[in-house]
Amino acid sequence: MRALQPLLHDVVICVAAPAFAASPRDGQLRGLRAEGFYGHDRRLLHTACLLVDGREPEPIGVQPLGPGQVRFTSVHRYPHDRTNDPTVIIERVRTAGAGESLLLRNVGTVARRLHVELALATDLADIADVKRGLTGTTVRSTAVLDPPGLDWRSRAGRAHVRVTESGPAPEVTDGPEGGTLTWPRVLLRPGESRQIRLTVSGGTVPDPPGHPRAPASPPPWSEPVVHGDRRLSALVRRGLADLRALRLADPEGTARDGVEDQFIAAGCPWYLTLFGRDSIWSARMLLPLGTDLARGTLWALARRQGSAHDVFREEAPGRILHELRPAEADHGNGLRLPSHYYGSVDATPLFVTLLVEAWHWGLPDADVDALLPYAERGMQWVEETTNRDEDGLLRYYPRPGGLRHQSWKDSEDAVRDAAGRRIEPPLALCEVQGYAYQAAVGLAGLMASHGRQQEAQRLTSWAQALRKRFADTFWLPSPDGPASRYVAIAVGRGLEPVSGPASNMGQLLSTGILDESGCRDVAAWLAAPELNSGWGLRSRSALLRGFNPLSYHGGSVWTHDTAIAVQGLCAAGCAAEASALAEGLLEAAAHFDYRMPELYGGDSRGEGSPAPLAYPAACRPQGWSAASGVAVLSALLGLAPDVSRRVLHIRPTPFGPLRVEGLRLAGREFSVGVGVAGSDAPVVVRGLPPDWTVDSTGA
């Protein structure tokens, strides 16, 4: 029988990348499912089970203390007491990347002598095996006496647990099934407490060279203050807190003036590492808060840009990395990926666009000039890949044993037609053509600013040719739909469009590949109930055969996908449609306590409908979901800088008054107010760099 991926809906996760801890709500780690302490994709501890007087404490509450720490509270009661009140309280604070502390408090009126026992064990499993639902063989533990604790070691990993508090040392017992720390006589008089601190450390054997590590410097973005919609303010605030915990630093990128190159890991628990596409989107979404995150992301990927042809890694010169892991891993169902894997069709054009947009937001000229050759090599890979295709489209050609679908919808059944049939690659996805067009046009503008007019003109001509091929190929008629046509999710062999409306077309709106009429048609579809669930944008139309509100890509709502659609709708001037999607996303956020999951159910929202449910195995926190609040905020403000003219264009979408402090342009913080009461102007901007002006005509 095939093992099933562990569900995460009731798992408490605290994260401080590259470490995290996943716990059930009572705090007891029993070696089940995804439970445990982790570091660098290795499970360091899967069992940490506490017994007091031979019994498990009774859980009464769990409280997150921030993205990286959580407190579990339980009680220990005595059947022969004459009161029902608990008299021994146990607080267990678990910290990602560090360990945990246990505080035993006697709040009763009589002294207690406790027998405290902590059973510890691990399988040192790779995160890929945990994700597949596999539990490895328990690794033999070895007792250590100074300081007291336990060690585990296998060919793949190692782990250490140490008792670090002062006081009587525990008795340490080791063995093939794990080990035990025992405090046989803990005396607590009334009002007294005893604290036990444990450190948990370890990792992969051997240490992966050049692998990302925890950052040593503060987050590379400003901290905005949002006044107006309280939901939007909470979404931005909670998202940035989670992004702080998801930061990683490139150890190969700290030489330039000691500045770390930081980026955002894709998500916890499954993707706590550098992912080209995901890390790029997170950096793009945070550009209104500064360009330092974009710079770090670009450099981390530039250093690992493809330089040779390698079939197993799917590497090619100029291609941008898809995924970085400490070691090669078996992901099941024939999917085996190397530590450096390049199997994505979209990361490369997105890399180019990130550089262009960071340039417009004020990335220093020295970084722009140094990164430009990497962007040119990336664009060359895009062009060469389209030349490989007789239709001139950007397709993906996966190798056997690699990812079958290589854009953001990358599950096995990610691309299906209106009848629910799976469509196999090679495929040209609609949004990928938009990415390629946007990258070419943006890079042409950057080259023109460097006086390279001939190369800029060649890229512009190439982009216009792709735009025409797209217009001739991707539209499908729909006489009974909200608009008379829609964009096919993909084009298969022989230029056959894949039927059935899907959310992918929403990501085209901000790329420029659609004309004004095309934007209006796409907007109509995104606003229609079959795609707009009321909580956000469904990944697949609810009217299609095979729609499943809890399918990974076949009907669920993705936070980032909805935010990108809002960005595009705002840019296209489709205010009503943008406001409707944004409103749904914010209503959903309130039900998730503003920590947006990777994806959630695509059931319809109506009066009295139940709250949306997270996809059971969704990452939370997740990078581009956490960054989506800033993306929506920037979209509703209508921020669009043009560095070549030193003009900040502002076209706000009517959504109610907003005032935002702590935005950043060209290294300087500024504020924007739109529709603020008591102001004669529709837009008020303060603090722009001295050589910049504001264009809010039409606001």
Provide a short characterization of the protein structure.
The protein is α+β, with helices and mostly antiparallel strands and 699 residues long. The longest helix is centred in the middle third of the chain and has 24 residues, at 365-388. The radius of gyration is 27 Å and the shape is globular.
Structure description:
The chain is of the alpha+beta class and 699 residues long. It has three domains: 12-204, Glycoside hydrolase, family 65, N-terminal domain (Beta-galactosidase, Chain A, domain 5, Distorted Sandwich); 230-637, Alpha/alpha barrel (Glycosyltransferase), CATH 1.50.10; 647-695, no CATH class. It contains 13 helices and 36 strands. The strands form eleven sheets. The chain has an eight-stranded antiparallel sheet with strand order 7-8-9-10-17-14-13-12, with no helix packed on it. A hairpin with an 8-residue loop joins strand 34 (668-674) and strand 35 (683-686). The longest helix is centred in the middle third of the chain and has 24 residues, at 365-388. It starts with 11 loop residues before the first strand and ends with a strand. The model has no long low-confidence stretch (mean pLDDT 95).
